[in-house]
Design a protein that fits this description.
heterodimer, A: about 80 residues, alpha+beta, Folate-binding fold, four-stranded antiparallel β-sheet, two-stranded antiparallel ribbon, about 15% helix, globular, B: about 1000 residues, Ubiquitin-like (UB roll), FAD/NAD(P)-binding domain, 7 domains, eight-stranded mixed β-sheet, seven-stranded antiparallel β-sheet, 23 helices, binds zinc ion
């Protein structure tokens, strides 16, 4: 957990205080769309796993409890602007 | 041995004696000794035997660069004795010896070195293949350092600390201290790490005169060290971690280290993890070993080691010391040791020129012969050094000198580990002969001796400059100060030209390039003859640099030697890779302390006093059951909690259920949030009624169940299972993260306690303590009421039936819990009220077919699988309920494990354990919970089984290895118990009892 993360409420804190919430895939599609198992699998389980900068969700679980997005360089494991 | 006295550099207190045990004898030293200096003071010269050849090894360095002084201390193997402080009563043992380090019965291995060429592990014993399993045992026995018993209990206390800094400086020598001061002067928070027990670095043990740039400050270097150290230690913005070893650098801004605890510290070792904006490496240099025959014989040591032994610990390393060096610090050490009383027959310097003329004049003054362009070729003697053969670099002229100490180094080697871990690429610098960083990552800086600076004011200025750069990384404007110090540096001597010499014309058979792995120059030559041309590969093949010293000794020489030996035009040396941990900490340090953090409910003590067997359940301490007979005569009691169960079924019992997750959710969009995470239609939750529902994840797997009620407009109160309480608020917020909903969720788990009052007499107990109408008509099953107990305690009461009897849950503020507990005990006395615990609860709810998630479900269990599919309301697609799509996909899926109830065929077989596999010719499922039912006089349980086996009356085989009863399986000593699938609930199927 060498990553440090900037919580919009509490500021920059060590990574241990946060929970990873996955890549930012946008809001969940309608149930009618997800009725197709392939579409459901795409949304729920498929990830881009980008080597580079990606936008992702984090929760400040040991702090204020907020869910928010950051951009992280997954190669260097550091938050970027 | 007599210690030198009254040196300003000493770090010992001769008045305070310390003794430790070694080889069954007691050895005395003084406060400030390391284990190695204490033993050295007592005449111990052989500390260990080498890994492969069992050659005697002595004190060579003092900062843990090699395994020569790894010993077993108080049962802990591989302790670095040269920098581990001696403590009273320590028990020290030599390692890798059969007998003792002095008389090792494995010493004949040295004569067999011809049989163990480089890479012999890879090449020999592989054919024929049948031999290998036998040989591997022998090799494993001979290989490895140190022994540890499997049940060894690591002594000591281990801690961890996570400080945050603007600037972290690695190395507390002059450059590091100046860097720290420069950054701290800008008001930044600075952390300074120093591996030795105190600040000072290369100044700390030297009495050479220091002259400041302005010329107005003149004093010995050791005094200058104290002056800087005092400034650093007094600075409010600097935190010093002394005796702290850097292990890793991550992402350029996280530094990991471990600190060795001193006598007054509360820890033996502690893990230090620093987050910083900027880092300065000012780690200085170590001495690069000189390669010659028997270059690791006891008596051969680094000049700095000899120098520090005398200056810091007051120990002259021997009587007569020959110096073979390649750097000015070596000449300085020879002069100083001569002044302190050693005989110095000569100083040989591999350099033809470039020495500090002042030092040469001092040598001359003392009539110490100085040999330019000479180096040691061979060290001779038995276990200890007797004489040294010096030679011109081409080997043409040779001369022997009798001595007991040979202080040898080929030059200097910068300690670049922290820089390479931070991502700096190293490149060979032909001026200094160092591997120096060529492309520094952002916010990483280097300073001081490691860049080649040797002139003290230049070292300090380079530190100051790096400190200013680091300050600039933190957004401080330092342009003027940088300009000033840069101008000052331009006028000072720059990095000195370093010696690149590696070895003279030696045979290489006993010339060790790596002490830890017993790797010689000859082995290296063999590797190159095999075709390995890159140091990284040669390192793997010969194992040079893979030992405990992690390249401390061979790290610099191996690439230099390889480059020298290759006739290719591009023979610029390439370094091997440094990896973390730079210095190995104890595994215990990574494990950290075991602070057992657990919670107690407000009525913990009452339950313990009533004989409650408290045990850990997740983060909580809960009563498993209550001892039935506390008389000293009869200690036996019943793990099945029969008495507690029968009392609830016949009279009334009370259970502390405070660990339930409890939440308030309110706001105009609260209902939307409930609809999103609960599978049921939550718009039907009404005031005064409880609704039971469940939560699934997106896979449709059930993760939680509980009840919800409405307390007011847009205001709900809900419970979750104990284990999910910590996750629930996060779960709600995660699944509404894209919505701009206006609602709040508050975790009340610790703010409220819960008492479950259950049994046919429960209502009569309740009637006694409240004026509210709690009759069946006024407070029916599944209702929610708020009233007060004894007109004081505000109670949220729910009429539920988890254990299958008339029962109430009282939710009260935690501070009222002890009072309510006592009131219920008092009121219930006439009805025979007793405590019941988790065991009784679990049996009774199982008799009712009620699930506990985690017992009757696992990761892949869906709502359908445990028969709760009816909770799912499919008519609310606009809610985008979590898991709804997957529930639709899996509704009719075949091949899943389904929850069934079963009854064993023969109760006399005993009760299968929870988790026992259900099998025929293969495993078909497993038992979730199984108990003997005192209410029904049969053994019943719940199991997850393949859907083919879920039909009523199917015969299930339960595999057990409890060794009794059941049908024995042929030849195995294992047994099958048999059961039949039966409908649930087992007990009171119509639910009359909880609705009475
Ligand atoms: Zn926060």
């Amino acid at each position: 957990m060498s990553v440090s993360i900037t919580c919009p409420v509490c500021g920059k804190r060590k990574g241990y205080e946060f929970r990873f919430g996955g890549e930012d895939k946008g809001a969940k599609p309608e149930e009618s769309v997800l009725a197709d198992p392939a579409a459901w699998c795409d949304y729920v389980h498929m990830n881009e796993c980008r080597a580079g900068v990606q936008k992702e969700w984090w929760c400040h679980k040991d702090g204020c409890g907020t869910w928010f997005c950051i951009k992280r360089d997954t190669v260097k494991n550091i938050e970027v602007k | 041995m007599n210690r030198l006295k009254n040196l300003p550099t000493l770090q010992i207190d001769p008045e305070k004696k310390i003794s430790l045990r070694y080889k069954g004898k007691s050895y005395e030293g003084v406060q400030g000794d390391t284990i190695a200096t204490l033993l050295y003071a007592n005449g111990i010269r052989v500390f260990a035997r080498s890994l492969k050849y069992h050659r005697p090894r002595g004190l060579y360095s003092l900062d843990g660069e090699c395994s020569n002084t790894l010993m077993e201390v108080d049962g802990i193997p591989n302790v670095r004795c040269e920098n581990t402080p001696a403590r009273e009563g320590m028990n020290v043992k030599a390692q890798n010896v059969l007998g003792s380090a002095d008389r090792d019965f494995m010493a004949f291995m040295d004569k067999m070195s011809r049989a163990m060429p480089a890479g012999f592990y890879y090449k020999i014993f592989h054919k024929p293949a049948s031999v290998w399993p036998l040989v591997i045992k022998r090799i494993r026995k001979a290989a490895g350092l140190g022994k540890m018993s499997p049940d060894f209990d690591m002594p000591g206390a281990y801690d961890e600390i996570y400080p945050r800094a603007d600037v972290c400086v690695v190395g507390g020598g002059p450059a590091g201290m100046c860097a720290a001061l420069a950054a701290a002067e800008q008001g930044l928070r600075v952390i300074l790490l120093e591996a030795r027990p105190r600040l000072g670095g290369s100044y700390d043990y030297r009495c050479t005169q220091y002259h400041s740039v302005s010329g107005d400050r003149n004093m010995p270097l050791c005094q200058r060290a104290r002056e800087l150290a005092e400034q650093v230690e007094a600075h409010p913005c600097i935190r010093v971690f002394a005796h702290t070893f850097l292990t890793g650098v991550y992402g350029g801004h996280v530094l990991t280290a471990f600190q060795q605890g001193g006598e007054a510290d509360h820890f033996t070792q502690r893990y230090v993890e620093i987050r910083t904006e900027s880092m300065v490496a000012a780690t200085g240099c170590t001495e690069r070993p000189l390669l010659f025959e028997n270059n690791e014989k006891p008596g051969v040591m680094q000049p700095g080691c000899a120098h520090r032994l005398a200056r810091t610990w007051g120990l002259l390393p021997g009587k007569t010391a020959v110096f073979s060096i390649g750097h000015d610090a070596g000449i300085e050490a020879a002069i100083d040791l001569s002044d302190l009383g050693m005989e110095i027959p000569c100083v040989a310097d591999v350099r033809e020129d470039g020495q500090d003329p002042l030092l040469l004049a001092e040598l001359e003054k003392r009539q110490i012969p100085f040999y330019r362009g000479w180096a040691a070729l061979c060290a001779e003697g038995g276990k200890n050094l007797k004489k040294v053969c010096l030679s011109t670099l081409n080997g043409k002229h040779q001369k022997n000198f009798a001595c007991d100490i040979l202080a040898a180094a080929a030059g200097l080697s910068p300690l670049t580990g922290p820089l390479t871990l931070a991502g700096a690429g190293l490149k060979y610098d032909s001026h200094s002969g160092f591997f120096l960083p060529e492309d520094m990552p952002e916010n990483i800086h280097a300073a001081g001796h490691l860049l080649g600076y040797e002139y003290p004011p230049a070292i300090e200025s380079s530190g100051t400059l790096a400190g200013l750069w680091a300050a600039a990384d933190c957004g401080v404007s330092v342009q003027n100060a940088v300009r000033e110090i840069s101008e000052e540096m331009a006028a000072l001597p720059g990095p000195l030209r370093g010696s690149k010499f590696v070895c003279g014309p030696v045979s290489g058979k006993k010339t060790f390039i790596c002490f830890d792995e017993d790797c010689t120059l000859k082995n290296t030559d063999q590797a190159m003859a095999e075709g390995f041309d890159v140091p990284e590969l040669i390192k793997r093949f010969t194992s040079a640099g893979t030992g405990p010293g992690q390249g401390g000794i061979p790290g610099h020489n191996l690439p230099l030697y390889v480059a020298l030996s290759q006739a290719s035009p591009d023979s610029s040396p390439r370094p091997t890779t440094t990896r973390s941990p730079l210095t190995p900490p104890y595994l215990a340090t990574y494990a950290g302390s075991s602070h057992d953090m657990s919670k107690r409910t407000p009525v913990h003590d009452f339950q313990a006093a009533s004989g409650g067997r408290m045990e850990r359940v997740g983060v909580w301490n809960r009563a498993r059951r209550f001892s039935q007979n506390q008389s000293p005569k009869n200690k036996s009691d019943d793990a099945t909690a029969r008495r507690e169960i029968e009392n609830v079924r016949n009279n009334v019992g009370m259970l502390d259920a405070s660990t339930l997750g409890k939440f308030r959710i309110f706001g105009q969009d609260a209902l939307k949030a409930l609809q999103r995470v609960y599978v049921s239609d939550m718009s039907r939750v009404s005031e005064g009624r409880m609704k039971y529902s469940a939560m699934c994840n997106e896979d449709g797997c059930v993760i939680d169940d509980g009840v919800v009620t409405k307390c007011g407009e847009n205001d709900y109160y809900l419970t979750t299972s104990t284990g999910r309480a910590g996750m629930t608020a996060e779960w709600f917020r995660f699944h509404s993260r894209y919505e701009k909903w206006d609602y709040h969720i508050v975790n009340l788990t610790d703010a409220y306690g819960v008492i479950n009052l259950a049994g046919p007499s429960a209502r009569r107990v309740l009637e006694k303590i409240t004026d509210a109408d709690v009759s069946h008509g006024a407070f029916p099953f599944s209702a929610y009421r708020e009233f007060s107990v004894q007109n004081v305690i505000p109670v949220r009461a729910m009429r539920l039936g988890f254990v299958g009897e008339l029962s109430y849950e009282f939710h009260v503020p935690s501070s009222f819990m002890p009072s309510l507990w006592q009131i219920l005990e008092e009121a219930g006395k006439e009805f025979g009220i007793q405590n019941f615990g988790l065991e009784a609860q679990s049996t009774m709810r199982m008799e009712k077919g009620h699930v506990i998630l985690g017992s009757e479900s696992e990761q892949r269990t869906t709502l359908h699988d445990i028969g709760l599919g009816f909770l799912w309301h499919r008519g609310k697609p606009e809610a985008k309920t979590v898991g709804a799509s997957a529930l639709a996909h899996t509704e009719k899926q075949k091949g899943r494990l389904k929850l069934v109830g079963f009854k064993t065929e023969n109760p006399a077989d005993g009760v299968p354990k929870d988790g026992a596999p259900i099998a025929d010719d293969r495993i078909r499922g497993y038992v979730c919970t199984c108990r003997y039912s005192y209410s029904l006089k049969v053994t019943i349980g719940m199991a997850l089984v393949e859907d083919e086996l879920a039909a009523e009356n199917t015969r299930l085989g339960i595999y057990t290895n409890d060794g009794f009863a059941g049908e024995a399986m042929p030849d195995s000593g294992e047994y099958m118990k048999y059961a039949r699938v039966v409908p649930m609930p087992f007990y009171d199927p119509e639910g009359k009892r909880m609705k009475m």
